[in-house]
């Protein structure tokens, strides 16, 4: 664990994204909105799971500092349907804190957990769901800011 005892708390933000490819069979069920599968409303469950995951990051990632989140938001945006009727969705997680260390891991964890929940909610329809392109888009605060090219 990195010693952050000598640092002062500053405002820090992070924005992460994961892309989830939903095959045609599942995409067709979800095009009309947050229609559920046998487990319930897919997007709503994923949003809640992403926030819960972000809040528990220090329990999941070894040596990650537990930090209080001032705010965490998960948003799911559907892209236009692709070849064969598949639908790609972007899972965005934005996290904010005032702390001695950054909030990037919380944003990344939130996006990952929401993406995994989309898989879990949709696997009764198809196991062909693909999670890809998980990355940090932006962070502010700390030694330097970052914005993905």
The tally of strands reads 7
Helix content: 25-40%
Order of helices and strands: EHEEHHEEHEE
Per CATH, the superfamily is Molybdopterin cofactor biosynthesis C (MoaC) domain
In short:
This protein is α+β, with helices and mostly antiparallel strands. The protein is 30% helix and 34% strand.
Keywords:
149 residues; Alpha-Beta Plaits; five-stranded antiparallel beta sheet; 34% strand; alpha+beta; 4 helices
Word description of this protein:
The structure is a single chain. This protein has 149 residues and is an alpha+beta fold. Helix content is 30%, strand content 34%. It is built from four helices and seven strands, in the order E-H-E-E-H-H-E-E-H-E-E. A five-stranded antiparallel beta sheet has the order 4-5-1-6-7. The protein has a two-stranded antiparallel sheet with strand order 2-3. A hairpin with a 2-residue loop joins strand 2 and strand 3. The protein is elongated. It starts with 9 loop residues before the first strand and ends with a strand.
Describe the protein's topology:
Blueprint: E1 10-22, H1 24-30, E2 36-37, E3 40-41, H2 42-55, H3 57-60, E4 71-78, E5 87-99, H4 104-122, E6 130-140, E7 146-147
Antiparallel strand pairs: 1-5, 1-6, 2-3, 4-5, 6-7
Helix pairs in contact: 2-4
């Amino acid at each position: 664990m990195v010693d952050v005892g000598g640092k002062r708390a500053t405002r820090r933000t992070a924005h992460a994204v994961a892309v989830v490819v939903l095959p045609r069979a599942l995409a067709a069920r979800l095009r009309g909105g947050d229609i559920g599968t046998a487990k319930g409303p897919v997007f709503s469950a994923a949003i809640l799971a992403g926030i819960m995951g972000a809040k528990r990051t220090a329990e999941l990632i070894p040596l990650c500092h537990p930090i209080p989140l001032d705010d965490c938001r998960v948003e799911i945006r559907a892209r236009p349907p692709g070849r064969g009727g598949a639908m790609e969705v972007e899972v965005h997680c934005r996290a904010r804190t005032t702390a001695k260390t950054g909030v990037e891991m919380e944003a990344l964890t939130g996006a990952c957990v929401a993406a995994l929940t989309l898989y879990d909610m949709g696997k009764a329809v198809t196991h062909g769901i693909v999670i890809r392109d998980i990355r940090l888009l932006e962070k502010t605060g700390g030694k330097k800011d970052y914005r993905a090219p």
